[in-house]
Amino acid sequence: MDLKRQYPEIRSYSETLCQPLKTEDYVVQVAAFASPAKWHLAHTTWFFETFILHPHLKSYNLYSTDFAYLFNSYYNNAGNRVLRANRGNMTRPTVEEIYAYRKYVDKAMGQLLDTEPANDIKNLILLGLNHEQQHQELLLTDIKYMFGQNPLFPPYDVQTTLSYQEKNAESGHVKIEEGIYEIGFNDKGFCYDNEHGLHKVYLDEFEIEKGLVTNVEYIEFIDAGGYSDFNLWLDEGWTWAQVNHIKAPLYWHKIDGEWHHYTLKGLKK
Length: 269
Known about the structure:
Layout (H helix, E strand, L loop, with lengths): L2 H16 L18 H20 L10 H5 L23 H20 L4 H30 L24 E4 L2 E5 L15 E5 L2 E4 L5 H9 L11 H9 L8 E4 L2 E6 L2 E3 L1
Antiparallel strand pairs: 1-4, 2-3, 5-6, 6-7
Helix pairs in contact: 1-4, 1-5, 2-4, 2-5
């Protein structure tokens, strides 16, 4: 694994994702299940500091003793932490200081990588990089949710796209035969622990569409009474829709009689 190349590439991508943001955008926590952009940037940095630099680089000094409390997520063995729902209350440390924290940790990580660390430390670094990539996905999800709750529906970036394929490449259905299938990780390289335990499962025969459901197709479902007919839902889903008064997918809004959906590029018809 080429960690000297991967580390700066993956770390810098987190900051690239934040380039369209203004300072005010970094702090907002719209809901308890979401996290501010500033917190994501700091938490992924705390991971490298706490589990790699502090125990494995002798010359390393913690950037701030407060950060272990502020930016721990759910690692009970690493100490106390701020409640998730309160992450948006942290107007301090500032965004500027979080970027300084990342720079401080990245410099130390460069020093550690120059020493050709042992394999167990390399594996920890690889875990940290995959952890950061997880948070890059969460970061975009939380940014979209934040802007999607803004009454102005501001675009995150009008040039961005998360799709390499705007239209379905295939149509029709594919048939999956009944039988016993293996699931779980069974290869070389990185995987998370919840992918371990290669095992067999039995599947009944079923069919599934080759392409994604389009917005046009889903509008037909809504207009046909899809959110008022319990026969089209499993019980748990129907209960969720009723309790939460769901009448359309998240980010869908009917404005002046026409459906619009919020994307990272802004509100679209």
